[in-house]
Amino acid sequence: MKKTLFWITKNKQIQCQLCNHYCLISEGQTGICAVRKNIKGQLYSLVYGKVIAENIDPIEKKPLFHFLPGSLSYSIATVGCNFKCLHCQNADISQYPIDEQLKDENFVPGKEITPEEIVRKAKKAKCESIAYTYTEPTIYAEFALACMKLAKKAGLKNVWVSNGYTAKEAWPKLLPYLNAINVDLKFFNNETYLKICGAKLQPILDNLKFLKKNKIWLEITTLIIPDLNDSEEELLSIAKFIKNELGAETPWHVSRFFPQYKLKDQNPTDEEIIHKAYALGKEIGLKYVYAGNIVSDIHENTYCPNCNRLVIRRTGYNIDKFDKNDHCPKCNTKIDLILK
Ligand code: SF4
Ligand code: SF4
Q1: In the chain, what percentage of residues exceed pLDDT 70?
Q2: Do the bridges between strand 157-162 and strand 180-184 make them parallel or antiparallel, or are there none, so unpaired?
Q3: What is the rounded CA–CA span in Å between residue 122 and residue 116?
């Protein structure tokens, strides 16, 4: 348990300013994420240094396809999330504090580990970055920040996989250490966001534009779920937003939904829809569109946006062919890749 940053006192309550929920938290209570608690007028993180997941992953698994392609990323998480997505793939850890009604900091699951150890292990495993992933890094921002500072000093990059709900007040401390981020743009409809995730759309759109403006390498993921966001109109809105507001070079990952957590009765997405979304993104003019969770790997390759020459061939998370050059070998067009 550790005192947190990112809060102010308001009408004898604490207002957490770490994410766009801006929870007002009374003495003895926690915010929506259930891992930040008001104890005697101070806000504490219940998950600081309590790592629930720790893996050496290919960075492609985040997914980040254009940032240090082919490298390993030391991937960590604590329990907790500020969203309550009914389809969460990692609900056992993201929703643990809520589902298990976490009230006592002594029962927070996770291995006690220091930022120094994380960085040491990442270096030993020959990772080139640390990924804050699986749950939502925002809710353990103080621990992530401590790791990010040490990682930067040690020559490692920092990448987040996020729902994009961080508060504008928190970014100034985090941005100097953040190199790349994959943000879910789950829906383009506020009601669906509220119903499925318990969050609003607009702060996410604002954050995406803000991250781009601040030159953080950005990739977007949309999990396509039948009847929730699979209409041509909604997919078109997402693709247009990416192209017009974030830039055609922003990679868009569309992936296939399988029944999970509280959406167990929902059908998996028809593969045909994923192919349609891929084609639609390309038609709109996005340079890099990827399709995940489908049988064919063909839509996981990177092609030159000018001449369509294959630049990176992937099978699942593995790179089969890539000559570590950020120019097309055929027409010499610059490919948007961060190689170091
Ligand atoms: S991180 Fe978000 S959800 Fe958690 S307490 Fe702060 S404002 Fe609330
Ligand atoms: S934002 Fe991500 S981790 Fe959090 S509940 Fe939603 S899917 Fe799960």
Answers
A1: 98
A2: parallel
A3: 10
- Tell me the CA–centroid distance for residue 90 and ligand 2, in Å: 7
Cβ atoms within 10 Å of 88's Cβ, excluding its own: 20
223-281, pLDDT tens digit by residue?
999 999 999 999 999 999 999 999 999 999 999 999 999 999 999 999 999 999 999 99
Q: Is 328 left (phi over 0), alpha (psi -120 to 50) or beta?
A: beta
Q: Using CA atoms, how far apart are residues 303 and 299, in angstroms rounded to an integer?
A: 10
Query: Which residues have any ligand 2 atom within 6 Å of their CB?
Result: 81, 83-85, 88, 90, 94, 135-136, 163, 197
Nearest ligand to the C-alpha atom of residue 14 = 1
Determine the distance separating the centroid of ligand 1 and the alpha carbon of 53, expressed in angstroms.
21
Ligand 2 pocket test, pick from 52, 86, 94 with the greatest ligand atom count within 8 Å of Cβ, gives: 94
Alpha carbon of 49 to those of 1, 76, 79: distances in Å?
8, 10, 11
Alpha carbon distance 326, 318 (integer Å): 18
